[in-house]
Amino acid sequence: MDKLTFQNTDKVYYHDRLMAATFLRLISSKVHPNHITIFRIIATPFVTLLLYFGFYEIGFIAFLVTAFSDVLDGSLARTRNQITEWGKVYDPLADKFLIACMIFVIVIKTISPLASIMIIGLEIIIVIAAWKRKTEGRVIQANLWGKIKMLLQVLGVSVLLLAIIFSWPMLLAYASGMLYLAILFGIISLLTHGV
User: Fold this and answer.
1) Please, is 21 exposed, middle or buried when counting C-beta atoms within 10 Å of its C-beta (0-12, 13-18, 19+)?
2) How far is residue 64's CA from residue 67's CA, in Å, rounded to a whole number?
3) What is the 8-class DSSP label of residue 27?
């Protein structure tokens, strides 16, 4: 991992304060946000394999833990003043890796190949746009629209997994709606130059 260079930030959100008062108290000061991002990158293939082989109950729990690590590392970085250039690049890439794997394992066969192609295509465009901004020396960072997109993607996949686990086909429409809404917020995020 690159040398850590911490940066000051004044953007501490309401949910960051809530996280600092609850879950972040359980995290040692030796654990940095980038460690949690690395955990997400390493955990994603295991979550993917669980779901691929049909272990949906444990896969669902593993997915929630892995997705929740995104909230943890972001809140940890902002509340402990540990935002790094490495984290700005790899945190959103870890999110995209997790969601892309979920698309390939369950969304493509249960919701729609078209929705899957749109989600993956949009994520690739966002990564390319962010890389281009970085090579031009401009700041890359997540914005509100990107955060909403990620939340909708996580909720969509979670509802989809619940539909599979409990055999509730009516939930497929909700999952589909959330994922299509995530596409809309992804486009807004792209147009406002975030990741």
Assistant:
1) exposed
2) 5
3) S
pTM of the entire structure? Answer: 0.89
Which of 185, 162, 192 lies closest to 175 in space, CA to CA?
162
Neighbour count for residue 128 (Cβ, 10 Å): 11
User: To the nearest whole percent, how much of the chain has pLDDT over 90?
Assistant: 73
- Residue 39 backbone dihedrals phi, psi, to 5 degrees: -55, -45
What is the sign, positive or negative, of the torsion defined by CA atoms of 82, 88, 94, 96? Answer: positive
| Cβ atoms of 148 and 125 closer than 8 Å | no
What is the tens place of the pLDDT at every residue in 115-135? 999 999 999 998 898 888 888
Please choose, from the candidates 26, 63, 71, the residue with its C-alpha nearest in 3D space to the C-alpha of residue 43: 63
